[in-house]
Amino acid sequence: MDGEESGQAVLPRTWRPRSVRWVAYGLALLIVATLAVLAAILPGSWGVMDRVLMVGLGLAIAAALHLLARPRLVAGEEGVTVVNSIRTHVLSWPEVVDVRMPEGEPWPSADLSDGTTLAVMAIQSADGESARRALEEFRALLHERGEGREPDRS
Questions:
Q1: Is the pLDDT of residue 87 over 80?
Q2: Is 122 left (phi over 0), alpha (psi -120 to 50) or beta?
Q3: Helix and strand numbers, DSSP H then E, in the chain
Q4: Which helix (H) or strand (E) is 73 found in, with range?
Q5: Interhelix angle for 19-41 vs 48-69, to 10°?
Q6: What are the residue ranges of helices labelled H in the chain?
Q7: Residue of 57, 74, 89, 103 with fewest CB within 10 Å of its CB?
């Protein structure tokens, strides 16, 4: 009997934004392809370095767009890895107290046991029902794995 048949989630489980990834990678491909074609058909008065820099600019823009598509949330046996655009946070299950996504917010926030919050950009409200389902799945895993204690307020 595997984890799904017994009612437990199979780990590791990864969530990623959907629409943002499609848009970011689609734009990156379009920009790089367009600038590569332009570099190839430029008049002879444009030098080799101009052409190389044009393609390089396209690649730099694609790299910036990759930062928008990079976020993911990975739930494993030992804890949670939150990968946002720039930073990656590795947390144990007890460090994550709760996750919430108020109406109108672009992504949920994880409440941590030290009293801080952490944006979880992997689940984005732009994904609609898929985001709601991902949030419910992660919240269920969080409660199954055990919540951290509330920070001492004294």
A1: yes
A2: alpha
A3: 3, 7
A4: strand 72-75
A5: 180
A6: 19-41, 48-69, 129-145
A7: 103
